[in-house]
Amino acid sequence: MLFNSFEFLIFFPIVFTIYWVLNKDLTKQNLLLLLSSYIFYAWWDWRFLSLIIISSFIDFRAGIKIFASKTKRERKKWLIVSLVANLGFLSIFKYYNFFAESFSDLMNRFGWQPNDLTLNIILPVGISFYTFQTLSYSIDIYRKQFKPTYNVVSFFTYVSFFPQLVAGPIERASNLLPQIEKKRIFKKEWFNAGVIQILIGLFRKIVIADNIAGYVDTIYADVSLYNSSTILLATVLYAFQIYFDFAGYSDIAIGTAKLLGFKFNQNFNLPYFSKSLTEFWRKWHISLSFWLRDYLYISLGGNRKGIKITYRNLMLTMLLGGLWHGANWTFLFWGGIHGVVLSLEKFLKSIRFSNKFKTVDFLGYPLTFGIVIFSWIFFRSQDLNSAFVAIKKIFQFNFSAPFIGDINLITNSILVLSIGLIFDLYLFNKNLSLENLGAKFSLLKIVIVSCIVIMLINLFYSSSNNFIYFQF
After folding, report:
1. S-S: 378 plus which of 92, 333, 453, 460, CB 3.0-4.6 Å?
2. Interval 141-198: pLDDT, tens
3. Where in the cell is it found (predicted)?
4. Which residues neighbour 66 within 8 Å (Cβ) at sequence distance 6 or greater?
């Protein structure tokens, strides 16, 4: 089920109403959330519910066993059970065909043609997100940073909670589980803030991202047909398409959770207003970047074993972070670019290089944006060959016949993007958090904003429904 679908428009008001009617009975509320979450996910494909249930059961038991273990060896054994089970599912469904195809390609280079090793596998929606969520639970207990829950309904609800089930934010057990296990109180300011954030999320997705997608998809379907300016424009537009698409999803998820009395952590914080790539990763997909830092980078040794090991750990973290997004060499290149630049920034900071250029500090904004734009070429391209063709064409600087393509698509894209950028610039200049923007709104303001957003959605309606990050 999609947030921007007619089905969800019916589904959520029903869940919301029953949920608050059951306010005096926490167990029934949680059972409703669990059942609703399974229905929400099964709407896509009921068969893959078994993966979530099996994963939930394994980590529920593993968490209890890790906590009860008397020796470090026994604790590690149960942690390995959790790691093997969860990463095993992820590897089979998401990465098996990638490695099988890569192996076959390598063998072909040596003149050997193995039989087709690939499997006809469907990638379960959200598997990367709920896998990381359950793993963080087991690892936190292993590190003695969190105690397990003994309530199976609470834990299963934590894993499958529908607002963030298929595309995050990746919530830590330390934040979400205590909220599931205590009584929720309806708060008017949370309701107002949630409604506003949902509306803004829908606007970002339907009005901005979906309308930009038309032009971007046309150009990136075959970049060899277009000139420098056309591909460059499509790449810049894609940067905003993926931002408004994913930030829009996060807004709807966070807002929906607020309406049910839950507070999620912020997942986007105006990332394109960043003066360095390090700052960018503190603002972009925050739940993932902090997950990679806490459970991968630090586990590898972080910056505790010397500068060379630090660079190695950064590169490995970003390469694996790239691979997390998809089973394609393009994502590895994308992660590698970020890893190299992050390492360079750390090196320059270590020699206090940046302190010498405080007077031109503002140059960090366009420089960072340029690096991010360049890396998006790999992220968006279908394969490495298409990515290199796009880069080659851009740097041919052939700007004749600019903006090849449907002029209506271009005009529409720039118009809706301008609205989104003006709003983001307002938030940036006022230092406002979108999560709290609507908390003090009156009923009249909410009605006015709702009418404006609904009018814009109808004016710029797009038939595209899928969120970009569903494929990851």
Report:
1. 333
2. 999 999 999 999 999 999 999 999 888 799 999 999 999 999 999 998 999 999 999 9
3. Cell membrane
4. 75, 78, 79, 82, 138, 141, 142, 148
54 contacts 65 by C-beta, under 8 angstroms:
no
CB atoms < 10 A from the CB of 104, how many?
16
Per-residue CA distances from 86 to 31, 82, 93, 147, 300 (Å): 24, 6, 11, 20, 19
Using the CB atoms, write b or e for 46-72: b if 16+ within 10 Å: eebbebbeebbebbbbbbbbbbebeee
Cα–Cα distance list, 425 to 126, 206, 238, 239, 420 (Å): 31, 20, 19, 16, 9
Residue pair 343/315 in contact by the 8 Å Cβ criterion: yes
Q: Is the peptide bond prior to 169 cis by the omega test (within 30 degrees of 0)? A: yes
**For tokens 């360095």, what's the residue?**
276
Per-residue pLDDT for 360 more than 60? no
Q: What is the enclosing helix (H) or strand (E) of 448?
A: helix 443-459
Q: Cβ(217)–Cβ(234) under 8 Å? A: no
Specify the 3-state DSSP secondary structure of 132.
helix
pLDDT digits (tens, 9 = 90+) for 300-318: 888 887 788 889 999 999 9
| Cβ-proximal residues to 448 (8 Å cutoff; 6+ apart), any chain | none
| pLDDT tens column, 372-402 | 999 999 999 999 999 999 999 998 877 666 6
- For the chain, the distance separating the N- and C-terminal CA atoms, rounded to the nearest angstrom, is 16
pTM: 0.90
CA distance 453 to 199: 7
With left for phi above 0 and alpha for psi between -120 and 50, is residue 225 left, alpha or beta? alpha
**CA atoms of 422 and 413, how far apart (whole Å):** 14
Is 392:218 a contact under the CB 8 Å cutoff? no
Q: Which amino acid is at 453?
A: V
Whether 285 sits among the annotated catalytic residues: the reply is: no
Amino acid at 273: F
